[in-house]
Design brief:
Layout (H helix, E strand, L loop, with lengths): L1 E9 L3 H9 L4 H4 L5 E4 L8 E5 L6 E9 L3 E7 L4 E10 L5 E10 L3 H13 L2 H13 L1
Antiparallel strand pairs: 1-7, 2-3, 3-4, 4-5, 5-6, 6-7
Helix pairs in contact: 1-4
Length: 138
Amino acid sequence: MWEYQHAAETTAAPEAVWRVWADVESWPEWNDGVERIRIDGPFEAGTAFTMTPPDDEPITMRLVEVVPGEVFTDELDAGDFRVTTAHRLEPLPGGGTRVVYRTEITGPAAGAVGPELGPRITGDFPDVVAALARRAEG
């Protein structure tokens, strides 16, 4: 297994951050790692979406967990490995939110694939979470 986690705090309420996440088609406006995106249904578990990173091929993933205002988890099933990213909101005692992105690569090929693919997937998490926070605070 390969894993990585990044967390940051924002003054935005969890509900404000959630609204940004749930508006999937606006992700390219604030997430530089998404050139295009298409969701094939509502923002709920079981729905597939296709995301195209800049200068790369489209990737189809599925929402496997959606708890409004708290967490959504997406998954890429590549057969011999699986990439799962949980996006979690933790309300802060004095107001605001801690935003946590956690990626795990599991499966028989995870040991070989994870060290190369993992950093490519998660390398922009600090920038993405900062942009998400700015958007939610705006």
